[in-house]
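Cast an eye over this sequence plus tokens and walk me through the fold:

***
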Amino acid sequence: MDRPLRSFGQSAGVWLFARLMGVPVPWCAVRQTDPEALLAYEHQRLLALAAAGEAVPPVLAFDGRSLTTGDVGTTLERLLHRLPEDERLPLMCAAGADLAGFHARGHWHGGAQARNLTWDGTRFARIDFEEPLHPAMPLPTVQLYDALQLVMSLARFLEPFGPQAVRTVLSAYQRAREAAAAGAGQTPPDLPGFIRHLLPRLRAVQRVAESLPRLRRAREVVRLCTVLDGMAAFAAADGLTSSPSRC
């Protein structure tokens, strides 16, 4: 419970950036003021997900001020650093498909970055559930946000493969989501449409970064460009055209 919370400025930055990107993250979800409540919220989510049969860390102890959990493997981010490059893309696709299955079972993460996903050699598991995004945000929106969080967090590992790898990971998620939805007679959230909604805003961020001499060739900007090109190709797969990249 003693870990640092977001300052007012950090909270405002997260909220404003999300709004500018077109993701209606509520203020109550980003403003962290009560560490005890946040810890209790994460504790309850871990118990609920475990009861539903999901792979999350087992709760070993909780006294209201500290939460002790079991180990569920190495984080995907750390593992990708260790793997040979030719083994990375299949694992990233598997992570996307696994997230789709998690969503199809009616769940959401709220922090679906690679640092919050683990792999023990047999299955993926999820950690870090302190973001109270739902029900303040509709479940489909939070799930789409999860998918984009995962892909954005994989940018450094996707960039060497080019935009096609980004499209491949998104397609792995989408295929698994559609297959699960078809089996349950459901309609999955519109990920291509969500991406088309975000792309103009994300491209604006890219243009601003490229206009600054110190950032124009920065590794982060190159990665962003690769991810946005891959997202555009994925969103255009239904026949819509995308604007050409300047990279």
